[in-house]
Amino acid sequence: MRAILLAGGLGLIGTLLGTRLAIRILVAKGYGQPIRDDGPTSHHTKRGTPTMGGLVIMISVVIAYLGAHLFTWEMPSASGVLLLSLFASLGLVGLVDDYIKISKQRNLGLRSKAKFAGQTLIAIGFGLLALQFKDARGQAPISPAISFIRDMHGWHLPAVLVVIWVFIMIAGMSNGVNLTDGLDGLATGASMMVFGAYTLVGIWQNNQSCFLTPGPKCYEVRDPLDLAVVAAALTGACFGFLWWNAAPAKIIMGDTGSLSLGGALAGLAVMSRTELLLLVLGGLFVMITLSVIMQVGYFKATHGKRLFRMAPLQHHFELLGWAEVTIVIRFWIICGICTAAGLGIFYAEWVSGV
Asked: Bridge-partner residues for 156, per DSSP?
């Protein structure tokens, strides 16, 4: 428990202080965010806002995790190291994307195929490695079964399909957070809520683990407490970054932050055996992703007509005249409801014993 508190606190301090320094450096170098011309006109005032702030989140989370283990004299687990590796690797893909944008001063960074190839290689590598490193009980960081709140019996997949499923989870959630990161503080605040929920899930799973308290309701998850340490570090880091990212944002996380945070959410879901529950906990990201899919599908089916004024969904409300802060707060409320609902379902399943 001390490691969780330390990780959360160090993550918070890291971004709260580190982001201020990053803003000064990025401003001095002229690393500002280019803005798409076809977006809401209100966004033109954000042109030149320092970007790549996700790098501060990445560094703070890694230091917070390692610092928590150093202070408590506990060895990092295979699950924790793999999750941080996934988080940092996707962040590096986003960093390359952001750097191309600011160096060439265009809104398009990496080509979509190159970005997708990077995500694919990282997801496949993570899936293959996470099937290894079994502990004394024979549990690997991820299991071959599809899970909702725990592994579903009869839904075991061969290794190839497991890796494909992990790829779908990682690609879907990393792009979902990326699409949500369109308004000041929106993706940061929403991510903070979901990571906070996973901190509680990890603590609960550890207290009711089959290793500590065997029984019909126990959880067969490898290293749940260390997953909670990573989740706490991510929660704290997002919380501290929000100080600078809230409207009017002094810095933008960029793809460096959004891809890494989305990947970490998917990794937490897969490792904690709550893959389908993530659709509820991260309901806001799912909703925004679906708005883009629906917009593209409707546009093609109707030969040019639009379902929304603009996608992702938050920009539709901007064009309806909603203030940016109003949209962010209301979407945070939606995210809070989804997170509370997900935690409620998680706890209700344990109480009912179903």
From this structure: 145
Which positions ≥6 away from 320 have C-beta within 8 Å? 309
Neighbours of 94 (CB within 10 A): 31
Q: What tokens were used for 89?
A: 């690797």
**Helices assigned H by DSSP within the chain:** 2-29, 54-72, 78-104, 112-130, 159-180, 186-207, 224-245, 254-271, 278-281, 283-301, 313-319, 324-352
Count of Cβ atoms closer than 10 Å to residue 103 Cβ: 10
Give the predicted TM-score (pTM) of the model.
0.93
Neighbours of 96 (CB within 10 A): 16
Rounded distance between C-alpha atoms, residue 141 and residue 76, angstroms: 13
Quick one: 115 exposed, middle or buried, by C-beta within 10 A (0-12, 13-18, 19+)?
buried
Report the share of the chain in percent with pLDDT over 90: 73
User: Omega into 224 within 30° of 0, i.e. cis?
Assistant: no
